[in-house]
Write a structure and sequence with these properties.
With about 130 residues, the chain is mainly β. Helix content is about 5%, strand content about 35%. This is PilZ domain-containing protein.
Length: about 130
Amino acid sequence: MEMDRRFFTRIEVPGTKIQYKKVGSTKLFTALSKPGELKNISKSGLAFFAMEQLQSGDRLLLKVQFPDGKKLRLLGRIRWQDEYDDTEKFEVGVQFAPFGTRSEYNSLKDWDYLKSLKGLDIIKPQEDDTRQSE
């Protein structure tokens, strides 16, 4: 049995839809995926269901639409992927990029919304934007 190494509470937000596209693709204009289903979200990332196999380490731009109509655009990196219950779906785990004011960071406004979700304790924004990016 595989050990769960997550330290943060994951919550489900039923009715939340997600679209994604790879960041840094060689294609000039890459369209977002068809809307998929969010499985859960935590202070450090999210899990969702994809209809295609993706690669661990790939950077993604995520468009998340919550049932209240709020839309977020988040950057993250794929950390894991598993086939889902003998279907053609894949469960994908994404770790968020930091939240802050630099262009490679996620928006502070998005951070404010995420931390307002009941039971969700999102990582605080970067205090020092002078640190090196990955």
